[in-house]
What we know:
The structure is a homodimer.
Chain A (H helix, E strand, L loop, with lengths): L3 H22 L6 H8 L3 H7 L11 H13 L7 H18 L1 H13 L1 H24 L12 H25 L6 H16 L2 H6 L14 H12 L1
Amino acid sequence: MVGVSGRARTRRLLSAAALSLFAENGYDSTTVDQIAAAAGVARRTFFRYFPTKEDAVFPDHDSTLVKVSLVLEAEGDGEEPITVVCRAIREVLRMYAAEAEVSVARYRLLRQVPALREREIAVVSRYERLFTKYLLAHPSASASPDSPDAPLMAEVSAAAVVAAHNHVLRRWLRGGGTGDAMAQLDHALRAVRDGLVDPRRRMSDRRVVVTVTQAGSGVDEVLDAVRHALN
Amino acid sequence: MVGVSGRARTRRLLSAAALSLFAENGYDSTTVDQIAAAAGVARRTFFRYFPTKEDAVFPDHDSTLVKVSLVLEAEGDGEEPITVVCRAIREVLRMYAAEAEVSVARYRLLRQVPALREREIAVVSRYERLFTKYLLAHPSASASPDSPDAPLMAEVSAAAVVAAHNHVLRRWLRGGGTGDAMAQLDHALRAVRDGLVDPRRRMSDRRVVVTVTQAGSGVDEVLDAVRHALN
């Protein structure tokens, strides 16, 4: 009997064998039998881990989806829902960054095999749907809760966060998986979030300060009055 | 010899036959031979139109991609690039709306067949890539052209526009393809674009008007002064 960590190890072994055979001999000409043999297991064992050959290329998305869900469920009190989503998507990049070499090899493979590229697009769309669902269930405190555009903005915000993640991920993979991917993601998410927070809220942050001083006041007196008004 | 319109007709016929057989007998148990027979053509004719069985479900995306490209190339002078993208994506919704009944039948089929759903996600991602490329090549007049975040914002903006389109499309399909889809899209795009235009530009639209009137002025005098300042 194989324990949980044994299962995880076999899964990883099969995935590594698949990736290296695909890169060596091409995706189409590699069979499940060859992958199983390279990993030292039987053909039927392969299918206990992955329903198809192409699934072996993406072994970690299922467990990452669980991690992402946990972050969403553990939302902090009074936080903007979009902030929680930004924290949750860090789990996805963390998964890629944890094995930079494997991620870069997979990226190169995907650029050559359209079927795998399409599969990844579909896999990544699962995160987007999860975020949309979360944002729908947790309207922003700054938005009018029964705005008819709330479902629209939930979907658009989720798409924007995922696009920012994908942009950072792709740049990092193109660069060979070097550099601090997480820091780059945080920068990108800040830039995007600034554009996603309800505009009315942002407007209300633009307060206008009016100070009234006596005609004939000196510059210092005026500056003092302004400083006082700003504090 | 079959002319261009004959080709288009055969293509449409094959697609309609495929959709109706998939709905009737299930996607997996329908063969290309059955589709060809239902459309009154030979099996090898089918493959002259579609490389695979699943491609017959999406007959119009290739030509719509061409239409979208044409709109992007015909950009108006001095228009914000994001405005041009919003106009271009109308071509995609127009394609669905042109045959509401077929679109609704396909939508119902896709909800039952994950492989087809994934295929559609991949197809739609082609529009997003096209928009990202266009926005990268046409930086917004209101953004600093060499901002290091320009590529990020191009990708995020393209994703936001496509998400708005997908939201409107799905709502319209769920509603059975009734109602003015194009008007709903225009509304959604306006809402999204407001959030995507450079925030600094939006800020500069929030002018502050200060009017100075004599102490003891009547209400009418004050209102006159304000009106004057606003014009």
